[in-house]
Amino acid sequence: MAKFQDKVVVVTGGASGIGASVAxxxxxxxxxxxxxxxxxxxxxxxxSAVRYHECDVASETSVEECFDTVLSDLGSVDxxxxxxxxxxxxxxxxxxxxxxxxxxxxxxxxxSFLVSRAAASRMVANxxxxxxxxxxxxxxxxxxxxxxxxxxxKGGVRLLTRSAAIDLxxxxxxxxxxxxxxxxxxxxxxxxxxxxxxxxxxxVMPGGKPGRPGDIASTALFLASPEAAFINGADIVxxxxxxxxxxx
Length: 248
Ligand SMILES: NC(=O)c1ccc[n+]([C@@H]2O[C@H](COP(=O)([O-])OP(=O)(O)OC[C@H]3O[C@@H](n4cnc5c(N)ncnc54)[C@H](O)[C@@H]3O)[C@@H](O)[C@H]2O)c1
Prior knowledge:
Order of helices and strands: EHEEHEHEHEHHHE
Number of domains: 1
CATH topology: Rossmann fold
CATH architecture: 3-Layer(aba) Sandwich
Bound molecules: nicotinamide-adenine-dinucleotide
Largest sheet: 7 strands, parallel
């Protein structure tokens, strides 16, 4: 029997990049997968086995409605993998507008709260020993130039993970964060192959190159598996050793 045969897995941000790879991995392992994303793929690019729902993770109403639909269609929420985020750099710190700041905090931090609360409340009500997996970043630990809104939002996701983990442990629910380093997703393929970025990766990545979406998907599969039942409130850094290095 496939590992997640009888499980309902909600993947936010599953229309693209890492989320799409996570959705595909759980589907391959037999799960019923619901993707929640603000921008759904063209009908021709969708998998017939996946349920797609248009959802803005920064909107409480949108998130609650989507989880109600998933629950009434599929009967439970067993696993949440929250990948949706506003990514990218903004401006030097002294030029960051309040609007830019709020847009990262709304989507990345408040969105993580709204989505994990929506999953957790339904898991508790249904007596489901569920798994909540939030996608942070190496920027949950260290920043870079022009990244104050993104890095601050991702730092917040780290403590949100721990706070939720503590409160939900008595219900048999675990909450963990995966912190990816640079991952070559299809939308980033061209950018990551430029000579400038190739040089940067050669310097900052101990192995000289970025990771692949499957590196994050396999970690999510592990955290959702019975073998990971005692891992809770943890940060799992999946970065090829990037954060381990201070100088090269
Ligand atoms: N790719 C990397 O190098 C990398 C590195 C570290 C962390 N991450 C994290 O991994 C996760 C996935 O990143 P990715 O590279 O696959 O990005 P991506 O841009 O390819 O995918 C993000 C998805 O989130 C969706 N989304 C954006 N705003 C939304 C909203 N308000 N509501 C619902 N959906 C929304 C987008 O439509 C998109 O499908 C993010 O949390 C990102 O911060 C990525």
